[in-house]
Amino acid sequence: MEILKVQDLTKTYGKGNTLVKALNKINFSVEKGEFVAIVGASGSGKSTLLHLLGGVDRPTSGKIFVNGIDVYKLNETDLAVFRRRQVGLIYQFYNLIPILNVAENITLPILLDNKKVDEEYLNELIDVLDLKNRIKHLPNELSGGQQQRVSIGRGLMNKPALLLADEPTGNLDSKASKDIIDLLKLSNQKYNQTIIMITHNQELARNASRIITIDDGQIVSDEMVK
Amino acid sequence: MNILNKLTIKHLKMNKKRTIVTIIGVLLSTSLMVGIGLLFSTIRDNAIESTKRYTGNYHVMLKKFNYDDINKLEKVESTFYEHGIGFAYLEEPVNEYKPYLYISSVNKKYFDELELIEGEFPKNNTEVVISKHMIVGGDIKYQVGDTITLEIGNRILEGKVTDNTEGYQNSEVDYLEPKETKTYKVVGIVERSNFENYSAPGYTIFTYSHLAPSEVNLYIRFNKPSKAYDLTDEIVKEFNIDKKNVQYNNSLLSIYGVSNYDNIMNSMYMVIAIVLSLISIGCIVVIYNSFAISVMERKKHFGLYSSIGATRKQIRKTVFFEAIIVGTIGIPLGILSGFLGIGVVLQIINNLLSSVFEIPLRLSAYPTFIIIPVVFMILVVLISAFLPALLASRITPIDAIRQNDDIKINKRKIRTNRIIKKLFGVESEIALKNIKRNKKKYRITVISLVTSIVLFISFSSILNYGLTGSSDFYSSASYDVYVSVYNHNETVDAKVKEILALDEIKKSATMEIYSLPINLFSEKIYQKRYLEVTDEYLRTIENYKKKEGWNFTYAPFVVLDDQNYDNYLKELGLNKDEVVFLNRQKYISYDNNSRKSYDLNVVKVDELDIKFCKVIQEEATNKIEPSKDDNGEYDSMVSGTYRGECDKGIENILVSDKIPYGLKDSLNRRGVFIINKKIFNDLLEEFPMLLEYGDKYTEIVIEADKYTNLNKLGEKLNVTGHANYANAKEMLKMERNAILVVKILLYGFITLVTLIGVTSVFNTINTSLALRKKEFAMLRSMGLTPKGFNKILYFESVFFGLKSILFGVPLSLGITYLIHRSVIDTMEISKMIIPYESIIISIFGVFVIVLMTMMYSTKKMKHENIIDAIREENI
């Protein structure tokens, strides 16, 4: 089943002489359950692509379909709801809310929806994330790896169509990085979660099932990993 | 509770300092608003109460109302009635305008309107209560327990039976027709009744009867005073009442706001409008700023919420939620402190001004005056939250994710002057670039500062104008007590004698003043300076001259009592009685706002020849002629032409500039002649035509140690209506107290208003510095010394200060001009009073407040671990 379809996606910054094409007519699609790694050098446009997929930025032209919905045809409110229900975002710098504890940070997307938290699923997630003893802790009381696990939990809490990860290990040591990648793989297998991960680390990328390489705003290779 | 609301509460708790300062801002604004409302409400209440005391507590009075119809009246809160039994002559009337007793029969409810001092109210129609002013003013020696027998009859005025409202005329047209003889027992004494006119010819005594005649004078209080006129019209229609018999209590109704009278307080309203709009704008700016700052601080949070799917509406709601929390705490506390504050102020006023207000000021919370400010504050809070809420909901997730807005920085926008860098170093450049980068944030701070400056200076201006209005009239008084007698009769003269005989008096002087016609001085002998200063007088002389034959003027001759006259002679070194011309004139001008007092010589000679004149009316007919002066053209009545025959005179009048003891400044407007009784009598003998000008008035000045008996007798003298007793010492004290109260109120206002502004300044600066924590840490990591750190702060303070002064001071001057314009009609002020003092204070204040806030906000930062600050996520 095709869960994501990207059509002629273009994003430019600036004007005239200072015009920068961050993305230039990109096309690809992703099936449900795929674990895609997007790799590229700094400035290649991979972060821009991820932000556009997550519905937090707007493309200059082109379209993105998630579950058949033309994302950027949605109005502001529906786009917010789309982000809430269809996308989980994991940032390099975790971006947790410092005044909320672990459990609250994880359940934030559900709470924003004014829905009841599925306690069973939450407990399962916390188990998987190995945060059992940290539920009541505030972000600044956690290590970087733990914080990133919280943010993965937040991304998964809504069982989103897409889990987007922007250099999720960029700020972590190798041990913690391995844990995070294992966790992503686990969720990919256990919940059949579609994951798109950005990294500049070829080694990490090899954990994915498919690697898309971007350079200068364009896809230069798209290969399956055996 | 909604998760976002929970987050808001957490956020408020996290930023305790700012939250508390914001709440204080709302609290102060609310208490200021409520305080103004309470003050108005209290003053209005006091006006109503004292008006009731003067006019009686009723809305309309219907004369000759049919007793049986009283029960048929609707929408009436209360009624009471009275009817006249008749008049009786007083045995020895002291006051020539009050020769009668008026006997009034009333119902029980009427007694509520009387204030019993002694004894009790009558229980039947043979008992009476008398009024206190009969005893004090009328010198009638009735006591409780006395039995009085009166010959009662109708009062006939110009041939018609009339009541106790028309003033007394004279015994020829105003007299009694006796009907019956009645005996009453005096059972009590009451304060003067509100229903007795000051010009009433009869002192009222009240008796009670449960029986009523067919017609009574009915006093009505309606349920709704505001509808008094309409309801009366209905009654008039229903019971077919003659309009002549309807008497509204207009002074009371006008305070309820239902009078048809035009308001004379337009200029006052203008000032009040300026004050209220200033405060309102101040409140809005301050509260808006605190929400704007809060949103700025939470910008990243909102972006994050948005990136994980919070809708715009949800984010807007959180800002409103914050407003509601701040409002629910701040507004009730503000109401409370408003009540407390005004309570304390009223206590102070009552202590200082006990005798200015007949009834002590009592805190009154008329609902409208409380509801309006509270509703206004709620609106202010919500409106202030509206824009920031809109702003918050527009924050895009991408802005939040990118961590900063650096991408938006435009090179040109932050270009700074190279000279500044050279002059003040790289720190100045950092400071300036920062200001240029965060224009919006800094704008809020500058707006807060400008608001504070404008509020401070404008309120100081109001204070300036307020105090200029209250000229210290009595402060120039050289004596303690002044008595003026303008109508001499036996009673008055006796009372004056009694006063002058009091032991309390240390020193006194009595002056009888006569205006006698003398020939005009030749212009040549006047001092040049005198003519310059008193050009008004000069004009009068010229006017006299223009009119054919006007060759005389009335000059004041002051007959000093013998003792003071003798002392005066001694002072002048004379050994025989002589006419002295006081060659000294005190002249006060109020030109250009300043009260200038001149003390000049009138003439430039040592001896004077004057001639007395016989005034002859040449043209008897009164005619109307067009006339013209500074105020424009108008018709004036010319009462014929007069000419003086001035042939005989006194020669060699001594000219001196020594002022005798007792002479009031007001008397000394142009040269006066000082004589004693003997000289005056000699003059009358020599110039019999002066007898025509025998009308005198008397001025007495007194210095005393104590005033107890003086004041008591003085009060009695004033009751006669022919003299005026004034204790300047006590009035001066009252006046100073009144100024003190005005000062307390306005300085209280200024303090509050300034504090409100300061809360806003504190919040804006504190928050924007907190947001730059990471940046400061970075600078420190690169080797910025504490000295350099302070340099940045100094530089930014100077920038804030200069910019806000640049906008604030001219704006304040504009508002001062508005105030000036609105009071110019009621006050004799021609030039705008520029509030230099408060401008200087506010310039210093701005720098001090900004710098102190900056130092305070960065105190922690300066000692924090640099790496912690850099690592800390800027959320």
Describe the protein's architecture and organization.
By secondary structure, chain A is α/β, with parallel strands linked by helices. Chain A has a domain at 35-45 and 79-224: Rossmann fold (3-Layer(aba) Sandwich). Chain A has seven helices and ten strands. Chain A has helices spanning 46-53, 76-86, 102-112, 119-129, 144-157, 174-190, 202-205, and strands at 2-13, 20-31, 35-39, 61-66, 69-70, 87-90, 162-166, 195-199, 210-215, 218-224. In chain A, the strands form two sheets. Chain A has a six-stranded mixed β-sheet, sandwiched between helices. A four-stranded antiparallel β-sheet of chain A has the order 2-1-4-5, covered by helices on one side. In chain A, strand 7 (162-166), helix 6 (174-190) and strand 8 (195-199) form a beta-alpha-beta unit. In chain A, helix 3 packs parallel to helix 5 (144-157) and helix 5 packs parallel to helix 6. Chain A is globular. The mean pLDDT of chain A is 87. Chain B has 875 residues and is α+β, with helices and mostly antiparallel strands. Chain B has four domains: 1-54 and 264-402, no CATH class; 63-222, no CATH class; 409-475 and 732-875, no CATH class; 505-614 and 647-704, no CATH class. Helix content of chain B is 49%, strand content 21%. In chain B, strands 1, 2, 3, 4, 5, 6, 7, 8, 9, 10 and 11 form an eleven-stranded mixed β-sheet that branches. Mean pLDDT of chain B is 79; it is low at 259-265. The interface between A and B is medium-sized, with 30 and 26 residues.
SSE layout:
The complex is a heterodimer of chains A (226) and B (875).
Chain A: E1 2-13, E2 20-31, E3 35-39, H1 46-53, E4 61-66, E5 69-70, H2 76-86, E6 87-90, H3 102-112, H4 119-129, H5 144-157, E7 162-166, H6 174-190, E8 195-199, H7 202-205, E9 210-215, E10 218-224
Parallel strand pairs in A: 3-8, 3-9, 6-7, 7-8
Antiparallel strand pairs in A: 1-2, 1-4, 4-5, 9-10
Helix pairs in contact in A: 3-5, 4-5, 5-6
Chain B: H1 3-14, H2 16-55, E1 60-66, E2 76-89, E3 100-106, E4 116-119, E5 127-131, H3 132-136, E6 147-157, E7 160-162, E8 174-190, E9 202-208, E10 215-222, H4 228-239, E11 246-248, H5 250-255, H6 266-297, H7 299-307, H8 312-352, H9 367-394, H10 397-401, H11 418-424, H12 426-437, H13 439-469, E12 481-485, H14 490-500, E13 505-519, H15 528-533, H16 535-546, E14 552-560, H17 562-572, E15 580-582, E16 585-589, E17 596-600, E18 607-617, E19 623-629, E20 632-638, E21 642-656, E22 673-676, H18 677-686, E23 696-704, H19 708-719, E24 723-727, H20 728-770, H21 773-781, H22 786-823, H23 836-863, H24 866-871
Parallel strand pairs in B: 3-9, 5-8, 14-22, 15-21
Antiparallel strand pairs in B: 1-10, 1-11, 2-3, 2-10, 4-8, 5-9, 6-7, 6-8, 12-23, 12-24, 13-14, 13-23, 15-22, 16-17, 18-21, 19-20
Helix pairs in contact in B: 1-8, 2-6, 2-8, 2-9, 2-20, 6-7, 6-9, 6-13, 6-20, 6-22, 8-9, 8-20, 11-12, 12-22, 13-20, 13-22, 13-23, 14-19, 20-23, 22-23
